[in-house]
Structures are given as C-alpha cells and as structure tokens.
Design a protein that fits this description.
The complex is a heterodimer of chains A (97) and B (464). Chain A is built from one helix and eight strands. The longest helix of chain A is centred in the first third of the chain and has 5 residues. In chain B, strands 1, 2, 3, 4, 5, 6 and 20 form a seven-stranded mixed sheet that branches. The radius of gyration of chain B is 22 Å and the shape is globular. The N and C termini of chain B lie close together (8 Å). The chains are: A mainly beta (97), B alpha/beta (464). Chains A and B meet through β1 and β5 of A and α3, β8, α6 and β9 of B. β1 of chain A pairs antiparallel with β9 of chain B, so a sheet runs across the interface.
Chain lengths: 97, 464
Amino acid sequence: MFRKLHEPVETVTIYVEGRPVAAEPGESVAAVLLRQAVVWSRPTPVKGSKRAPYCMIGVCFDCLAQVDGIGSVQTCMTPVEEGMKVERQQRQRCLPS
Amino acid sequence: MSKTDLLIVGAGPAGMTAAITARRYGIDVLVVDDQTSPGGQIWRAVETQAATPRGAILGRAYQEGKATADAFRASGARYEPRTQLWQVEPGFRAFVTHDGKARTIEARAIILATGAQERPTPFPGWTLPGVLTVGAAQVLLKTAGQIPSKPVWVAGCGPLPLLYLVQLLNAGGRIAGYLDTTPAGRHWAALRRLPKALGAGGALLKGLAWKTVLRRRRVPIIRHVIDLEAHGAERLEAISYRTADGQQTTVSADNLFVHEGVVPNIHAALGLGCAVEWRDEQDCYVPVLDQWGETSKAGIFVAGDGAGIAGAKAGQCRGALAAQRLAVKLGYADEQIVIKEAARVQKSLACELALRPFLDAMFRPHSRIFSPSDETVICRCEEVTAGEIRAMARIGSGPNQIKAFTRAGMGPCQGRQCGYTVTRILAEIQNCPAREVGFYRVRPPLKPVTLGELATLDQEEEVL
C-alpha cells in the first residue's frame, strides 16, 4: 500500500466500486487505486488470478479497469476527474442474454 | 485529418529537443505523446513539480528538465498530449487516438522518440499485487507524491534502484532492504572500460554519491542475490531469495519493487518494418540507424533511448541530430551549414556514449534472469509459463509459431512483457544466439483500439 507525502490542497472525488474516494487533480486513477486499504486487484481473463498496477507507464496492461462504463481502460494513463466511476473488471466479458 | 512536415512521437528529452531544434529551422512540427504533460518518464510532471518540495526530493537531474519543457512549450511546435499512435502507412499517414476518437495525420517525416521500458524479468510471483517495478514506484513519486506506507523491499540491478532508494530516503520513506542482484565480477568487467568513461565523470560521481548515502543511512544491502521469488495467495505476503553462499531467506513483505535495467521501446519501429539488430552488451534489439538516426525506412528516424539505452542527455543530442538532418532533407536548411552546426551536438553525444560501455558492463543483469523456472508465468496477459514455451521450443518453432501455439504475446500488451523472454528461451533450448532467434512480428494496431474509436475514422472522412 502507498501513502501520499502531502495533504492535497485541492481534491476531486472519484467512486471506486461505488465508494467515494478523495483524489488529487493531475494524478492517475492507478495511483489512487494503489492507496486503497483493500488491495486493488482484478481477476485475469484466463485463469482469474489477481492483478494490480505494475509498470505505471502503459506497457503491462495489468491496471485495466472499467472507467465510467468503458472496459479495459489503462488506469495508469488516465488522470482522475471529478465524479469518475471506477469498477473492477470481471474476467471475460460476455454479451447480456 | 491534419498535415504536418514533421511528426514527432513522444515528448520526452529526445522528442522535445527534436521539436525545439526543428522549429529553429522553421519546420512545421506536430508532437503527439501518450502522457498528459511533456517530460517523458524521466521528467514526468516536471512542469508542475520541479519547483516544489517533491522536485527537491527527486533531485537536480529531475529539476533540470523544466528548462527543456519550457523551451518546448515556447518552440511553436503543436503538441497533442494523451494521444496514442497505433499505425503508420507509407507516405506517411499516421493513425492516432485521443479522447476516444481516432484520426489521421499526414507527415513528410517521422521521428520516433518513444523511449524505453523496464526490462521484463519474470520470476515466480512477479504478477502478484504488491509487486511493482522500481520505475513504477518512481512514477508514483513524481506524479502523485506517494511512497510505500510500510518498509519496502527493492530488488535488482542498475543505477535506477540506487537513485530511487535515495529519493525514497529523501522523502522520509522506509526501506526493508536492497537485494542487489548484480552478479559477482561485474566490477572487474566494468573497470576495464573505466578510462573511456572518465570523460563523463559527473555521472560516475553521482553513482558513488548514491551508494554513500545508502551506506550512511544504514540501508541493509544484500549482494549477489539470486532466485528471487514473491509469495502470497491473492497479494504479496512474503519474498524469498538466495545468496551466493547458497543460503535461502524468506521474509514478509508488503511491497516489492524490481528492476533489471531498461530496454528500448521498439514496437513502433518494428511495426513500421524498420530493420533492427541485436546488441549483446545491452541484451536487446535496437533499430539499425545511420549517424543522424535515420532507420532503414527513408524518412523515419529514431531518437532517444528507443535508439539504444544511453540516457536523457544522449537522447537530447540524438533528437537534435535527427531534426538537423531533417532540416536538410525537407529543404529548410543548407547541408553545409547544418553539418557545421551538428558538429557540436555530435561531440556532446560522443561524450555521453563514452560512459555507456562502463555502465553496460557494470549493470549487465545475471544471465539466470533470462531463463526463468518452468512454473514461472512469462506472458502476463495470457498466463503462459516458461515450461509451456520450452515445450514448444523443443519442437523447433520461432517466436511467431510460439505465439500461435501458446497465445504468448497475443494479449493487450502485445508482447511488451514476454517478447524478450520468449526469444531468450528459444535461444537456450535451440542452442543458438538470441540474435538469430528474432522477435515477434509486430503488427498494427500498436496499442489496443476500440471498435468505437475506429468508427470515428469514418466520420473524419465524411467531414472531408
């Protein structure tokens, strides 16, 4: 788990699995996820093993999440925005029946 | 669609300096970059952080990036952040996405300044949440001002772990220990290359200063570490390692940061069909370039660490040289004048490059990291193990057959994490040098593109 060195002057609120979380403008969604007390992870599509942000520069794709309804968003490349909704991806996606 | 004389991909030290130089000759420049602000990885968030306490924690080499970012902003180059390149057609027509929309850019020449990534080094447990790269931890410090909340284990080889550990101490962070994986004997190998490196003495002194800080602050340093493993059910709980005397140690861990050097980002160059060659001393492929950085494809240049690892200052020199050559090729400057102006840059570049053989020898990773145990996952996306790759390698396939048989390299990262390991395992099993094995064939799109993004291309044509 990570902690911030400073108290942000300005904050926005994003929703991680529906829970409001304070974030600082300019930081990435992945940075916020790594500060959560419960380790952020998503199951992989193949074996369902747990993954969390790993490279932070957009080359490993382990930080993928659903952001504002769009799946497979690279959260390390996505700056936080007020009201953003972040959800865990659940293995393979399937068409609603 | 937009048009430009020169499209530069990447706004790190090389891309920014290429843009600044090209603008000086009056070339029309468009820079696309996938980050939110200029600086590349080394100077991430430098515009907002250089003058803050965080800038002081990161050090002078970081803060110095602000001057280049300012010059870049003032250069008159068009700059499009958060824009990803995913295809280039001959001529050139580049395809990019930004904010969920795809569009095309027509350019007479392209400079790829896409930098480097950390060398993927698979070991058992490296996919567990809680394990990150040292570079990732440093990006978190630069862009979010955050550090691990508990004492952290750092394992690896290279200048970056030393720099990060010093920055972490500056920030008030706590270090459980540094597991130095540099094999024995590297100092002697490097020593032979020292005389040539003395020209760049400043960088050598910096390295020594970091080591002094770590000693003075009593950071536990365990040398010649091998067989690193991360353990845990759903997240990192413990790590284990062995030392040269054969002793195995297991300790609990909250975070583990790993690093075994950096390799050029060559996906774009490979995707464009540029020739590459294997470089033994850096254990990676690099694009084949002339003295100005032009690839085997006329009009496509590579500058910065994407041209071979040499650091930010060398990257700036290479960016300037590529832009100078293009000033001549695109008809903006007289060749004789440019040759004269480039001489000074070439001299600086030679000075930077003189340091490299020493660093490459000093921090060449242990050969064991290229041969992970059978149960180790090597393709993070498709979860293919080294054992599965070895089984396929034994029936005599190349990287592309391995991809088809096992799905290694078919996930969203497109082989950025498993490519080199597959090459090395094939070389090991088939008993031939890595240079003869080759790499995955890289095809567009270079980054994942959604159907929705592709569909916006059609709207673009209608507008025309």
